[in-house]
Amino acid sequence: MYTARAFVAAVFAVFFAAVSADDVLKLTKDNFDDVIAKEPLVFIKFFAPWCGHCKSMAEDFKNVATEMKGKAVLADVDATTEEELAKKYNIEGFPTLKLFSDGVELTDYNGARDKDSMIKFIERATLPPFHSPADADAYKKIVTDNSEKHLLVSAGLEGQALSMFKKATFGVRDVMPDAFEFIVADDASAVDIESFSKGDVYMLRLESDGSRRTIKYDEAAAESIEKFVKTAALPVFQEFTQENAELYTDLSMPLVVGFYKNCEDKQCKVLETVARKKPDNGKAVFAWVDSMELVSFQDYVGLKDAEVPICAYSFEHDARYLLPADFNFSEETLEAWVDDLIAGKIKPAIKSEAVPEENDGPVYVVVGDSWSDIVEDKTKDVMVAQVAEWCGHCAKLKPVYKKVATELQKAGIEHVKLAMMEATENDAPDEFKARGFPTIHFFKAGEEQTGIEFDGDRSSKGIIEWIKEHTSKKFEFDTSSLGEDPEPEEEEEEFPEEEGEFDEEGELGEGEGDADLEKEEL
């Protein structure tokens, strides 16, 4: 029963949020839905009290809240106490910033966390998300006035359909702020597109010759309007940069990419020629990368010193498709290779360092080529940690992990083996690839290789207690005797120093100067 006491508590919760010590609201499960439903724009920071990045941006966030008062509401959610909200909105790292409008989640904010950048983002969000022409003349004027932009057009949208269209406008503007205009006509009769009906969504894509190509959104073929737009709007060939990376990382098709100082290089020109022969095939996209800017991306795909620095890379599967070692480069051979890629004839390459000649533990070294021999050894319980050299959390784990392996050996626990793999230099099987660092899996002896992902505390006590719970052969070990865990042997940078490095969430990061863009793990 909804009692008077419950009613008063609910009202008080909203009132309390509104009169916080600063202009940042404090949201809980009791007032969250009410606040996002009644406010036209709410910018929410999901944080953890122990998160250093959250603390670093707190003052700027407060200042933004004060300056944007009346235009947008800024709010905090402590994800460590509001676990239901954190789960509902898939919060996997801190801080996570999300924009809501009239109860609808519009987009994540992935920009810089300084005051000016956040204000610019919010001010852009306060602008009308689309044009609303009342008749055919108004529609034609909008099309004419935006002759150098792509257009996304619909009419008569209501309810959930309108919310999804509005969400798409924010997602697209976030990565292509000046490339699009959006139109939702009051009535379908205003729209000059053949066979256009109420509720249809069309993209009028601007081609290089100034003409427009009409592409209809097929809900059954595309996951969302936003994804449809991002894919359809991609140029046939352009530079892949930090700024437009999100256009490619969300795609389900591979990126055929070349790494050059500039695209005046003869090989790059050939790549562009091949790309222009394959437009809109829905099987691959093409781009080139400035090899002086995104150095670590080139290293990551294994093309650092390649004579022909071209490959295909799938962000969805973290898979590389490489040219043969004896590849004889020409327009014809490259086009043939791309055709084979599109036809599914090219298999992803396994990246691997050399198998070490000596590998006696206590922590066994795993490389791509030795994964099956060590990790899939059905006579042992094997715990394997995937780490990255630049990862601060990994640096903290390594001495603790070695301590665990040593202590288990001392105790005569012979059926448990601990292993570690440098994941940026070696590939795990697709189903076990690290999506963040460190990633730890446990494989029980005698079972099919359905590795369990470690979800315990990364202390020596926590790891051993977790192994005791999941092992194939029960054993006794008194973890109270372990004492303090060791610190990292040497200082390591927690964040990438080099622009374009992959960050701890497995994403392309900006580098040391933008370390505040990192997230701390949940």
TrEMBL record:
Enzyme Commission number(s) from the entry: 5.3.4.1
GO CC annotation, single: endoplasmic reticulum lumen
Subcellular locations according to the entry: Endoplasmic reticulum lumen
One Pfam assignment: Thioredoxin
Keyword Protein biosynthesis appears in the UniProt entry: no
GO molecular function, one term: protein disulfide isomerase activity
A GO BP entry: protein folding
Superkingdom field: Eukaryota
Keyword flag Coiled coil: no
Region of interest (Disordered), ranges: 475-522
Cystine residue pairs: 51-54, 391-394
Top enzyme class: isomerase
Physiological role: Participates in various redox reactions through the reversible oxidation of its active center dithiol to a disulfide and catalyzes dithiol-disulfide exchange reactions.
NCBIfam families registered for this protein in UniProt: ER_PDI_fam
Protein name, per record: protein disulfide-isomerase
Species lineage: Eukaryota, Rhodophyta, Florideophyceae, Rhodymeniophycidae, Gracilariales
